[in-house]
Amino acid sequence: MKRKTIDIITLGCSKNLVDSEHLMRQLEEVGYHVTHDAEKPKGEIVVINTCGFIGDAKEESINMILEFAQAREEGQLEKLYVMGCLSERYLKELAIEIPQVDKFYGKFNWAELLQDLGKAYHEELHIERTLTTPKHYAYLKISEGCDRKCSYCAIPIITGRHVSRPMEEILDEVRYLVAKGVKEFQVIAQELTYYGVDLYKKQMLPELIERISEVPGVEWIRLHYAYPAHFPTGLFRVMRERPNVCKYMDIALQHISDPMLEKMRRHVTKEETYRLLEQFRREVPGIHLRTTLMVGHPGETEADFEDLKEFVRKVRFDRMGAFAYSEEDGTYAAAHYEDEIPQEIKQARLDELMSIQQGISAELSVAKVGQRMKVIIDRLEGDYYVGRTEFDSPEVDPEVLIAQEGKPLLIGNFYQVEIINSDDFDLFGRVI
Description:
By secondary structure, the protein is an alpha/beta fold. The protein has 14 helices and 18 strands.
């Protein structure tokens, strides 16, 4: 008997991806053939895991739903289901507007999908996943939700309060993934630094990372999405002492001018931010800092923007992303501020900021030429093996390109590589 195929399409962040991977494992267990982000979905059933973060992401999610709603109407699909953040936020409205969708689920009740397909959810498999990433790395979600109330952010509205996963459960998942061949873990949360406060009444991130680092087979641990206020400084020691904890920190700072930090409700000052970054570089030699900044938040003056540019030039982030403010329903900013900065000014500020960073990134890359670095190989693409150093996260950071010559390299293996050249984005190397 032919197994029915379910196509799962994941939009948005890596936290959504983890949810899709858990769902895939459950669906496979009950007999479905499951594909993920297939180029040409051909399944009888489609599940879209949506993102609801900012305007562009919401638009992408809605367009994807509409595309498959049309296919459902034309009889090309038996069933169409939608889950994730956009669905959590606008469930009732979407159900009225797009009746071709068989059912909308939120972010946390997707297990009901199995019931609606006439199948049982297997609780005993709750830590198991079908990886969609290359099998040598995985994303590890340690909590859900966020207790911060930043003015511009809708995520706490969507995901609710911060909920940490029990430490033992996370460690069981790490052991399970290592047994599957995973060597590298991208530790993710909406807000890493708050981990443990709800369960253990104190910040437990340093202890958690230390315990993950002790699991045999874990070669790299990389940390994503920290918050600068009340940063758990015990983490510095762990990053410094544990060779398998990458000297990499993704810490979203958003802005630097005090008036903007206050308007954004970030609970941190310019002085505290500079002090934290200096501490990072002092306590963890060789640390690579990644940040995200925002331009065009209501009230941002030219002086605020000049302050931000000076900050970028001064700190010289190893990695930096930026985006323009977009007003989100239900946020503090939407209720209390007027989105008065024209789109073209937001875009011009964004372009200028990224142009400064591009110059810095190029200079930092050139400085790596001649160095020897440990590199993991992710894939073979054309004439090059594509890998990363400990300072590079998949899909968002620069890569190391190694010409295919001589002895073949193995995907998922580590090699010592000499960096021989660089461009604005990537490094070029040869295996030593």
